[in-house]
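Progress narrative, work stream C.
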Amino acid sequence: MIKIKHPQELAHLRCLALSAQALLQTQAYGSGLEGARNAINHIGYVQGDSAINLIL
């Protein structure tokens, strides 16, 4: 288990996790429906918010 001693470490780990999924880049997977499909295929899951409607 990783022990976080400073808030900066948590921010750095969060940045690494997002970067590993290519979520820090603008349109890393393309745009539109094809981009959404590419992102889902790469990341492997979809997390929907109940406050919005998703059409896939």
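Work stream C, second folded protein:
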Amino acid sequence: MSHLTHFNKLSLVVLEMCEVIARRSRSIVEETNVTMKIYRVCNELFDEFYDGRPTRHISVSISKLEDENSMQLSIFEANKWRNLKLGSAMDAIRSKYGVPLHY
């Protein structure tokens, strides 16, 4: 097999991967750093796409996180301040004791 043929086949594999990724992605309307909000979106994706086969790798990528010291106020989230404080407390515990290796 020539180098160019191998390159073309690899390019097709990358294209297929990009198409799968584009179908399996979500955006959250407002910036956030709230773990549970991100977790809910991840669970929605998992519920939608998991087909019951054995899984060897799951990956999550996040961008445009809200700065930890800022908070967008919302009339629809009455407990936002409480949840922010709870998330900060959980982060402090994880920093001190680490993250569990097995779930």
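The first helix runs from residue 3 to 23. No further action is required on this item.
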